[in-house]
Structure formats: structure tokens, C-alpha cells
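Quality-control log, excerpt.
Job 1 of 2 completed; input and output follow.
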Amino acid sequence: MKARQDSGPRERLLTAAQRLTYEHGPTVGVDALLTEANVARRSLYEHFGGKDGLIAEMLRRSADEDIQRYRAVLDGAGDDPRARLLAVFDELDAIVTRPGFRGCRYLGADLALPAEAHPAHAVTGDYRERIHALLEHELVRLRHPDPGAAADQLQLLIEGTLATGAARPGTHPGRIARQLAERILD
């Protein structure tokens, strides 16, 4: 499915990068991105300075969208911080069991782009800090005795759920992670 033609080249490149890098990884070829977006190579360089800039900006946009999804899940679970945090694992279980689930795009980028200076790593690091802050905020509200360490543990469960969901489809890792999260919260 090609990017919509009623959007500009920048938007089409971002849309194409979001889809193709999720399906094929961040090492997908420039030609495939250009074809999917139906843009000239010049547009890639004008808007992003090259493929590395496109990947970083696509991850930034994806991170913003994913943070909003986390907030929506938390808010949708009511006001109780424990219920809010456990709802994250219920949602993750639903996500990882959907057809076409391919894992965490941020972990995938970190693993596929080994150069430490790649701009994607700053974006994935910032994304993880934002997730940690969301978790820690809820843990403070819960009056957890060590909200920072508990947020680290919950974040590990989140990332493990996403990795296991991709590597072992049909195993419902979100359910197992939820049980472990309950112990952390208690």
C-alpha cells in the first residue's frame, strides 16, 4: 500500500518509513522507501538530510503516538494507579497477539543500527525515559516504597512482553507479565 498522494513528500516519506521499517526493519532500502512514498530521492535529502534523519524522525513520530496510546490506556483504566498500571499489560497482551505483530520498533532499531552515533539511538533512549516517567508517576501515586526501581522492573516487563510476543507468537506474554507486575505493585 503506497502512501497517500494528497499529502506532501515529507509526510509520505514518514508514513512509508513507519510501515516499511516495522515490516522489514530499519535497514530497509532507500529505494523501497522512495517507491513506497512515491517521491524523488531529492525529497529525502531536502526534508531529512538522508535516510538516517528519516529513520530518526519516523521513530520520534512513532514514539509520540505510542506515548499517547500509553496515556490513553492509563486514563481508560480510571483513577486507581494500580488498575492503571495493570491495564498497560492487558493492552500489551492484546497488541502482541494481533496478526502482523512484529515486535518493538525501538528495540528493533537499537539492534539493527549498531553505530552508536546513529540519531535513532537518541530517540529510542528518550522514548524509554518517557515510558519510565509515566510508570514512575503512577507508582508515586500508588505510594510504592521505591517507585524508580519498580518503574525499572515494569519497564523490563513491558520490553520483555514485546520481545516475547514477536519471538513466540500465541504465548500471551502480557498475561504472564501482568502477574509479575502485580507482585511488583504489591
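Job 2 of 2 completed; input and output follow.
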Amino acid sequence: MIPKHNFAPRVLAWFDQHGRKHLPWQHNKTPYRVWISEIMLQQTQVTTVIPYYERFMTSFPDVFALASAPQDDVLAHWSGLGYYARARNMHKAAQQLVEHWQGEFPMTQEGVCELPGIGRSTAAAILSISRNEPLAILDGNVKRVLARFHAVPTWPGERKTEVAMWELAEAYAPNDRCGDYTQAMMDLGATLCTRSKPRCNECPLQADCDALATGSPTDFPKSKPKKAAKPIRSTQMLVLRQADQVLLEKRPASGIWGGLWSLPEVDLDDDVAQAAEQRLPVVVHDVTSLSPFRHTFSHYHLDIIPSELMVASSAEIQEGGKYQWFAISDALSLGLPAPVRTLLDSHQAMRQLI
């Protein structure tokens, strides 16, 4: 794939006239503020991120505030965004920045990439936007723009194709206005060169876009080879109630929902009351089945079968341990997996829990 003429000037001219310039992270563009936005925007739409970003920056206005915060507080601010490893890595990276870099980001892309949760493209975005470093990015939006512009015939996730696209991205990146160009490429993919219904007639690259010339621009980028259908797993979630409190379980630090507070789970074939009494110091006197529902992860479906268990008595549970009683209102302020929050906050559950 050979780079074409006058690419960056066209993109920058379009950005000057049509690009987004009023998003919260586009003001006071410090490495910290850009970093938080870049991590939040991974796998998540701008409209969803904005309120999360604003709340996050109010609570953690700088890297020192983030590094010193309890992980539970960080996860509570992330609750609902999904992909919670992003938040855990962000917290670890903040602590490393404070401990080893006096709260400043490294000056090189390689140095930034050593921080947890930051890869080549994200590091380049942080440094180019905040410090105007001449570095290329290759996020999902940029991959789509380049794959269409060159009608790349293979899936961009293939190693050989990805290497070729990095070469294009670096060839097109200008030496001047690097931060604006990085933002412009992301904006172009997010607002014009969208996955479906691209607005090709408004695109500054339409004159020599190879995908548009085929008459079927949405055929690019090529899709990832299909895998088998997602497997389905099932679990029983226990809503253990004692008066106006609910029992939550702290998830392990790694794995699905790592570090979040969740509802205890038992195997599908278990008798819920018996399983609860065997695992916990509780006596159950009433069980009510709640409506089952499905939560979908990137790699499998989880069918959740919830039950409400009224607890007649409970031995004291150690403060700060794996299990803890919370008032419902307090529980909803914690970092919770999305389906647990849905369950506790739904009309059917709330009618019984409040």
C-alpha cells in the first residue's frame, strides 16, 4: 500500500471547519486528562463517556488524587462502563506515575507504553494531543478510515495487515499540528467514516478513496473471520436480605468483574437456601424466585437466575472481609457489575428490596 498525496492537509482543513473542539477533554489538554479520556473511550461511545468523564475528573482531578484513592472508589466511578480491567490498570498506572515519575508522564512513547493498560496507539494519542509529539495512532476509527481509503482487502486484525496499516498511519502523520491531526483522524472516523451509512459526500478524502470507488465502501474494513456462536453459561445469583440490607461479595482482583462488589453466586443445580447456609453464617426462612435475564460479554452469554432469600438470622460477618452487608442505597453507590446493578435497581427487584 503506497501513501497518497496531500492526505494530512485535507484532513486538517476538514478538522478546522468541522471537527469536534468542545468535548470536555479537549480543554486543558494535560497528559493526565487526555489519558483518562482515551481509556474511557476504548470500546465506549463519546456520548456515554462524557458524564462519566466529568464525574471522574471532579473526584480525581489529577494523578495524585487517583493514585491515593481506594480502588473501590475508582471502580464505583467506573460502574456501568464495563471492561473493568481498564479502571484497575488505570489505578495501578497512576500509582506508578506517582511513585516513579513524580506524577509526570514519561517523555517517550516507549516509556508511556510501560504503564499498565497503555498500548502503542493510546500512548501516541496521549503524547500527540497533550504535547504535540509527531506520533501516529491506529485506533478503531483510524483503522476504518485507512482501510477504506486504500480498500485494504484483508482483516486489519491480521498481523501482516496491521503492520502495513501502521506504516500507512506513520507515513501520513504530519510533523506539524500533530495533536490536531490525531484528533481529526479520530473525528473523521467517528462522525463521517462510520461503520454504517458513511457520509462519503462530506469526506475530505472522497476524491481518491479506493473503497468509495468500488461503490461499496461499507465492504471495508474486511470483517474478522467468523467464530462459532458464543457459548452460554448460567448461574444463580442470591439476593440475600436481612431487614433493609443486602449481602454483597467482593470479587477477586482479576478475572470477570475483578475487584467489584457482586451478589453471591451458586451453581445452577444447587438448592439456593441450602447453598447459602453452607457457605455463609446465615439461616434462610423464605425464598422467592426473581425473573431470569441474560447478560452478554464479548465472548459468552451469561444467563442469570436470581432468587431473593430472606435471612432469619446471621452471625456477625467480619468487617472488611469477602462478604459484607450493605443498605440498598449504599450498595448502589459501589462499583457493581452492570447486571447486578440492573437487578438491584430494577422495578421488580426494588419493589421487594426497598
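Post-run check on job 2. Residues 7-219 form a domain with the Endonuclease III; domain 1 fold (CATH 1.10.340.30).
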